[in-house]
Amino acid sequence: MFHNDPFVRSPREARIAERAERLSRLFAGRAAEHDRDASFPFENFEDLKSEGYLKLTAPAEYGGEECTLYEMVLSQERLARGDGSTALAVGWHVGIMLHLRTVRTWPPSLYERLCRDVTNHGDMINSFASEPATGSPSRGGKPQTTAVKTDGGWILTGRKTYSTLSPILRRFTVTAGIADTDATGEFLVEKSDRVRIEETWDTIGMRATGSHDVILDGVFVPDDRVIRGPGESKNAKAPDDGAGWLLHIPACYLGVAWAARDFTLRFAASYRPNSLPGPIADLPHIQRLIGDMEQELIVARTFLYSTAERWDRFPEIRAALKPELGTAKTLATNAALSIVDQAMRIVGGSSLSRSLPLERYYRDVRAGLHNPPMEDAVTRMLAQRALNECRSDIENE
């Protein structure tokens, strides 16, 4: 089926896409149960591990596949067709691994250990930064989690929210405020009896991501696991990659919308109410809705993939691509919302039934509104760039 997708451009990309599609079919059979129970899909991650998916973006020098941003988007979009929760959750891992490979801000020995654990043992990583009092870290709030210096390391105390993958991770990074200063640091935390997961994740959408609260109760972090200490500027040693790795988010939501589109096409082509001579797909207003869905999916995918390709091809402009990267996310999220809504209009009242996947798709895509970057921040970036360009033109006249 992949030769029909214009975004699959090579045999390597076809292999990447085929693996994700194979996993997607497995996950689709389990998605409804995990959604209903808000349970973490451990078996999905065993499958990801056995298929080598967890080393998708790890560097080749340590045994990873070293996929590009474009290839990650291609893979993640397909994975989400089977289960949005699993795709979004593993997306944080493969996205962060791509980011770390690009910027190399970790101490070299610590980074090598992480990469080898990912490629040899199927370990994963995520960064826990959100807190009840600060909201999204993208808004710039200072963490209330505190780090206190002690002999040989630091003692961390606090609570992190939206901690996706928390049930399965052996290690994760956290940001913390340095006690009695205005500085912050970033620390690699290993699971221990001082780390507790409070199962708070009970939402309307993306219910199986395991995004619970993580409680740090005096966790000791040795000095050799400090990623960024007090007085060190964030990414001071690194190139600005524009946070391109966050394209795993729009890829996920377009994948869910794609699944809704596929289900709806099959439904429309086969559903024959006795009031009609043929299937509802023959009706002009149904075809109009289908055409609208197709148009939105094509536009959003084209912009997403073209932006990912530019990020891969031109490293020197990655920081300048931030407005485009943000636009790819907002365009994809809003398109996904619209596509699923139109799909439900086509299917009608039965689309609300839990026996069909559409109501789950409808709930899942709404979560995209609350993933970074936020729409207002993207709009502000675009406006500021346009105004700066205008002012520069005026000055040069």
UniProtKB/TrEMBL annotation:
Residues 130-149 are annotated as: Disordered. Keywords: FAD, Flavoprotein, Oxidoreductase. Residues 130-148 have a biased composition (Polar residues). InterPro entries: Acyl-CoA_Oxase/DH_mid-dom, Acyl-CoA_Oxase/DH_mid-dom_sf, AcylCo_DH-like_C, AcylCo_DH/oxidase_C, AcylCoA_DH/ox_N, AcylCoA_DH/ox_N_sf, AcylCoA_DH/oxidase_NM_dom_sf. The keyword Phosphoprotein does not apply. GO terms for molecular function: acyl-CoA dehydrogenase activity; flavin adenine dinucleotide binding. Residues 251-367 form the Acyl-CoA dehydrogenase/oxidase C-terminal domain. The keyword Flavoprotein applies. Residues 129-219 form the Acyl-CoA oxidase/dehydrogenase middle domain. It comes from the Bacteria. Gene3D superfamilies: Acyl-CoA dehydrogenase/oxidase, N-terminal domain, Butyryl-CoA Dehydrogenase, subunit A, domain 2, Butyryl-CoA Dehydrogenase, subunit A, domain 3. Its cofactor is FAD. Residues 28-98 form the Acyl-CoA dehydrogenase/oxidase N-terminal domain. CDD domains: ACAD. Belongs to the acyl-CoA dehydrogenase family. This is Acyl-CoA dehydrogenase. It comes from Cohnella pontilimi. The lineage of its organism: Bacteria, Bacillati, Bacillota, Bacilli, Bacillales.
